[in-house]
Specification:
Elements lengths: L6 H19 L5 H20 L3 H6 L8
Helix pairs in contact: 1-2
Length: about 70
């Protein structure tokens, strides 16, 4: 698969994931919503690491700079 996640996109995804985890463990968010947000945070971290976002692929988008 062709990588389609750029550096800025990776940083934003990781910041969102870290924020959600902090909010969850400080009990600002909890319950079902908290668990759903944790799962979405895990997805954001994985897509940042592998540099491939299935949603961007489906939409034909890319945040990665052209080489």
């Amino acid at each position: 698969m062709k990588k389609n996640v750029g550096t800025v996109d990776k940083v934003i995804r990781l910041l969102i994931a870290v924020t959600v985890v902090i909010l969850y463990f400080t009990n600002v968010i909890s319950g079902t919503v908290g668990i759903i947000l944790l799962v979405l945070s895990a997805v954001l971290v994985v897509t940042s690491i592998v540099s491939i976002c299935p949603i961007w692929l489906a939409l034909g988008l890319s945040t990665k700079k052209k080489e």
